[in-house]
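Q: A reviewer asked whether we had any structural model of the full assembly, not just the individual parts. We don't, so I'm hoping you can provide one. Inputs are below.
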Amino acid sequence: EVQLVESGGGLVQPGGSLRLSCAASGFAFNIYTMTWVRQAPGKGLEWISYISSIYNTIYYADSVKGRFTISRDNTKNSVFLQMDSLRAEDTAIYYCARFPRQDAFDIWGQGTTVTVSS
Amino acid sequence: QSALTQPASVSGSPGQSITISCTGTSSDIGSYNLVSWYQQHPGKAPKLIIYEVSERPSGVSNRFSGSKSGNTASLTISGLQVEDEADYYCCSYAGRSAFWVFGGGTKLTVL
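A: Here is a predicted structure for the entire assembly that you could use as a starting point for your response.
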């Protein structure tokens, strides 16, 4: 079964850090671009980061650029999101999603919740 | 404020057809045939239902169809079923400045 499982969410104070993980199974992870998409409570979806399968081409949305870092470990079939200098507006469910051909997010994880609050 | 504009809500009766619009600009929808649509039930992850404007992934009902004209993309659901009640989001590639942008979402109510 093709599956993505996120972990690492939690409650963190403003200015703090968290590292999210997304473990992939059921497909050849190393050949796929992966992304992170978030959804604030009661709000819509927001694409935030992208990492290509090889050469590690990386993109960020302006809202997280300079604070978040995406990475991947193809030996562990995992993609990560290091989140620093967290703000209240970063409170959201964070989904990792597979991104074949860069035309659509075809497989999504169940999400992990990040709450930034004092 | 979302980059793409969708109606906040639409409704229809079982068996009817509805269309959800997604309006962008010449920098996103108008420039690329990279529009996708996602269905999200409450408390669940989004599910891809349309990619590249009008293509359906394997396993998605042919009651779902997509189209594009100019800067506006549309999702049509025919033969509405109760289980179609969900939030629907459009997404488009927007070039190297904004990359991928979503609409604000449309809540579909099946009466």
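A: Points you may want to mention in the reply: The first strand of chain A starts at residue 3 and ends at 7. The two ends of chain A are 39 Å apart (CA to CA).
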